[in-house]
Amino acid sequence: MASWRQLTAGLRRLLRPAAAERDVRDEVAHYLEQSGGAAIQRTPMEEEVRSYGWENAVSTTLADLRYALRQLKSHPGFTAAAVLTLALGIGANTAAFSVVNGVLLRPLPLKGSDRLYTLYENSAAAGGRLASYPTFLDWREQTRVFGALAFVRGLTVGLKEAEGTENVIGAYVSPGFFDVLTPRRMTGRAFARDEEAEGAHVVVITHRLASRRFGDSAGAIGKSLTLDNGDYRVIGVLPAEYSYPAWADLYVPLQVLAGSDAALTHRDLHVDSRVIGRLAPGMTLAGARTRMNAIQSRLAAAYPADGAGWTAVDLIPLKDEVIGLGPAGDGGQQQRAILVIAAAIGLILLIACANLANLSLARASSRQREMAVRSALGADRHRIVRQLLTESALLSLLGAAAGTLLAVFGVRELRVSMPGALARLDEVTVDGAALAFTMTITLATTVLFGLAPALRAAAPDPTGILKAGSRSVSGRSRFRSALVSIEVALALVLLVGAGLLLRSFWGLSHQDVGFNPRGSLSLGVFPDPSRSRGPDGAASLYRRVEEAVLALPGVATAGLTNNLPLGGGLTSAIVVPGRATPEHRTDVVYFREASPGYFGAMEIPVKQGRVFAAADMTAGARVAVVNEAAVQRYWPGKNPIGQQVTVFRSAQGRADFGQPLTLEIVGVVGDVRNVALETPGQPEIYLPYPVNPWGHMSLVVRTAGSPDALIPALRQAVLATEPGLAGVAGAKGFTPMTEGLTQFLAGRRLTMSLLVSFAGSALLLAVLGIYGVVAYTVAQRTKEIGIRAALGASHGRIAGLVLRQSMVTVLGGLIAGLAAALALTRLLAGLLFGVGPADPATFVAVAALLMLVAILASSLPMLRAMKVDALVALRLES
């Protein structure tokens, strides 16, 4: 082995013309003293020489790996920052894009899903509405636009179990339903033609019901389910990803309802149903719309009582229907939320790449002298590039592993913690293409900027690099400052968006909804149709249930209604004496039944008059209570008490569906958010439930203590009125009313949580970027700071010098970010409530937060600069 003296003597002879001011051996020793010997002193000379290519490839690669590990270990700050940046960039982007792809982009798990459409009747004046079953029959008879057309009717049905009866949602489907919505695979089989025509007692169930009831799909085939009207044999189990209709637990032939469901005979009953069609081969969407509109115009003329004005047909892609973009959906709120998430993905990826570039460039600059030493010792450019590639690859692998784990964990947590927040969220898995794309972008950035030292190492005068020291902050430092400004600008955009959604969510979740959900429970009460009790028998059951619950200690009050708040509900045409009704337009009002105790159980305030009394609970009562929105619309400036109003009976198998009911208004109550939290109270009319007993009712119980503690006693009391009563057993029994609000806010919570997570990640990356640039600048200007200290500069002036440098960088980013945020936050307009997209308070608060964070990120390098010893600094750079 050549001795150290011999090696440096050879280098001195080789480089003597370029080393007039200092011996190369001294330069190398000086570099080793500064670097702590991490680069060369810890590596035996034989290994260094062998690593230059004089041993086989395996040993060289292992040597490169060992050296790369030592480099990463000896610079834990850089390693941690780079791995964290990679993990956030890869993990957050992969998780978010997996949601976007799984919900919005990925095809439905149905054969030929791109040619599936849902059909709605359309009126230029009133928009879209559900098609009735008679209309569906006419469409199917008169058109050849679709290769197959199907109808599905949704009804709650009691599923009898050993511990009682559980409510499930049945999808009653027309013949050929599974020809239209064909699963890619299923266990067992779909309905046969004769089973569909005869209304056979066979059932196809969902994977979740099979798992809950039978353990697995295979074990369910051939088993029996006992529903309200008899036993049904399970002939098929759908795959877990089959998601239409999303509310369905089981599928039954529609003919089972023949003669018992008014929805199958009344053309003017547009509720709880869907029509789905598969376009015929060769048929275009435009052609289908033209032909369906012609058919609908003929039907509107033939049935003017129901169809006047409804002269068109909407064809909505089934995938859009599933994610809530149809007339029965949420008006596109989910799509807007997903687009916001997609935009955030792009911003966080840009920030991660900028931060990686910044970290890599700072690291490259700090290693210029090391690369120069290697070059002076004989390493060629290819050797240095290979070593740096090894380091970048190792760093990338660590970051990729952390990012993959973060993506898997993030997707799993979203599915578990926010079920139902977005349609198809339960189908979302980590997307391999998104993971590969994000890894490629971030890892390419790491490698590209990590190789910068190799380019500098090709300089013809390594001694010049060794002597350069820290005489100036180069143009590359200005480039790194520009990258930090970009990070700050992008972080500000995300923080402003997150701040707007936070304020909106807070306002929405704390607004007055017209009732008090805390301290109350709800229960669906479903009379058993097999008992054939009729309207009077159903009303008697509801009364006994209410009385049994009120008798329990701990129950403050209880009441019944057919539709709980935020559940929408049926509407009825309303006739108000003296109020003109425009042609082809009917004033409508939400039509609700209730018991006297309902208003107290919900704590709905009585504004005028009274609510129902016990004497009103008869089938012949003709009294009504309206809300303030109805008074403002129909009796503005007048006293509504004593006024007459006519509504029409609602139906659930009723023969007298649509018959008029003339009622006298006896009271006015406050508005309740019944449609959506964002929607103000709509006109509503309440009548005593015996007047129009519904097929099921919801019991609301307000407790004096903890609601959960009272559930066992409540369950026992209700079951005592009728053993096995549907709704009491299973997971869908007594439910805290607060859960309804939580579920309604789930979609907004998901969007807000994702954007807040992105904003937090962006803020953290910006902190790393600011700290890195300021720390590097302090290191580069050590001699200058030492001279200033020697000339008498105070600690305050030195701190101001460092802080001024960081603030210039941050202010540039803030100005650009504010301008970008003003333009981009318009995307959030449809997701905001009670706050505008250009809310000044949010913009000012976010800007102040970033300034504060920038000062904190600069504080450590600033303290380091204040502690610089002038003599040490001058000696190191002399």
What does this structure look like?
This protein has 29 helices and 22 strands. Helix 6 (133-142) crosses helix 10, helix 19 packs across helix 27 and helix 25 (746-780) runs antiparallel to helix 27. Mean pLDDT is 78; it is low at 6-55 and 469-473. By secondary structure, the protein is an alpha+beta fold. The strands form 3 sheets. Strands 1, 2, 3, 4, 5, 6, 7, 8, 9, 10 and 11 form an 11-stranded mixed beta sheet that branches. Strand 7 (224-227) and strand 8 (230-237) form a beta hairpin. The radius of gyration is 36 Å and the shape is elongated.
Number of helices: 29
Distance between the termini: 33 Å
Number of strands: 22
Mean pLDDT: 78
Shape: elongated
Residue share in helices? 40-55%
Describe the sheet with the most strands: 11 strands, mixed
Q: What percentage of amino acids are in beta strands?
A: 15-25%
Radius of gyration: 36 Å
Regions with little confidence, pLDDT below 50 for 5+ residues: 6-55, 469-473
Give the helix/strand class: alpha+beta
In short:
With 878 residues, this protein is of the alpha+beta class. Strands 1, 2, 3, 4, 5, 6, 7, 8, 9, 10 and 11 form an eleven-stranded mixed sheet that branches. Strands 14, 15, 16, 17, 18, 19 and 20 form a seven-stranded mixed sheet that branches.
